[in-house]
Specification:
mainly alpha; two-stranded antiparallel ribbon; two-stranded parallel ribbon; about 140 residues; 7 helices
Length: about 140
Amino acid sequence: MIRGPHRAVLFDLFDTLVRIDSGEYLAGKREAAQVLGVPPERFIGAWIAASDQAQTGVLPDIASRIRYAVRACGAEPDEAMVSRVVLMEEQHLTSGSSLYPDVLPTLGALRAHQEVTTGLVSNASSTAALLVERLGLIGYF
């Protein structure tokens, strides 16, 4: 146990506070590929390959990452389909994500100590803000 008065506790988002169901995640990517008319496995590979660019802001939002992955599949994305897939991605991400059972009690207990500041740090893409809001974490950070 680490002792001493602590002024801050920092949390990572994914696999610390939030769990993503990998089956739901991949199903969403396959559905997106079908809508976009590109091979699902190639789309998934391109999506994953773009992770660093999404996490560093080179691909600043979901639509940019979709366009990148479609182009990596050798196609040109239709903007109406990109908009549709953005909404699908947001839905799949939200429905396939959940808080670990001890997250809210832990954050609530820390919040009760006004001398302790909580912070959220993560190497995540723009979707992190969406999850923080939809999973009810926004008031803790």
